[in-house]
Amino acid sequence: MTKPESAERIKRAVQSALDREDMEGLLALGAPADEYEPEAQLVADAINILSEDACRVPPTASQLLESLRQVWQRMFGPFSQQDLAKREPALRRVAADIVRALGQ
Q1: Structural domain for 15, as ranges
Q2: Per residue in 38-57, pLDDT tens?
Q3: Are the C-beta atoms of 11 and 42 separated by less than 8 Å?
């Protein structure tokens, strides 16, 4: 698989996980289907960087979770610790879904 194909596969996996979880409930409220596309791209970029730093080994769920927290704070925050804690189970599910989709 070429690097562009791999990057696109990663982005699709992230987008799919974010859309399924719909953490902010925006898709359920009728937001456009690409609502989480910017966040998916940021997370996919983080995965690509983490993979390169680890000699192409996919990131762990823990690494993904930290990237997801950072992206969510940046794009939807700032969140209080309490607000972020409410999202933690969903963030963990998304991280696990992405790891599964990437075949780790």
Answers
A1: 3-22+33-101
A2: 999 999 999 988 887 656 67
A3: no
